[in-house]
């Protein structure tokens, strides 16, 4: 490596979750301790500086959907600039949290009617800051 500053690999995956696990194993074997696999500082309120990331390899990638579906039509999706996921909303009538599918596109939030939820399923109210993806 010609520089001591971080190397960022941008990976676009078109493979199953099992194949992704294999790729991750190979990355760990090849890069060893240089692979950044955990936050530099778990309680940090900002991103690490390049100095903190010296001699590290960072892998940036697109994740599969929650059901492990592979989206092979990425060229059309790049232009959409859309974010999507699940949204929990408080139902004032039933006095409970309800789960909705939501999407943000062209500056507008759209969401579905509530998604059926099993009785034993509790909505996750706590999200680790390391799981927040503001833009990808």
Would you write up a description of this structure?
With 136 residues, the chain is α+β, with helices and mostly antiparallel strands. Among the domains are: 7-60, no CATH class; 83-114, no CATH class. It is 16% helix and 24% strand. The chain has 2 helices and 5 strands, in the order E-H-E-H-E-E-E. The strands form 2 sheets. The protein has a 3-stranded antiparallel beta sheet, with no helix packed on it. The radius of gyration is 19 Å and the shape is elongated. The two termini are 26 Å apart.
Q: How would you briefly describe this protein structure?
A:
The protein has 136 residues and is an alpha+beta fold. It contains 2 helices and 5 strands; from the N terminus they run E-H-E-H-E-E-E. Among the domains are: 7-60, no CATH class; 83-114, no CATH class.
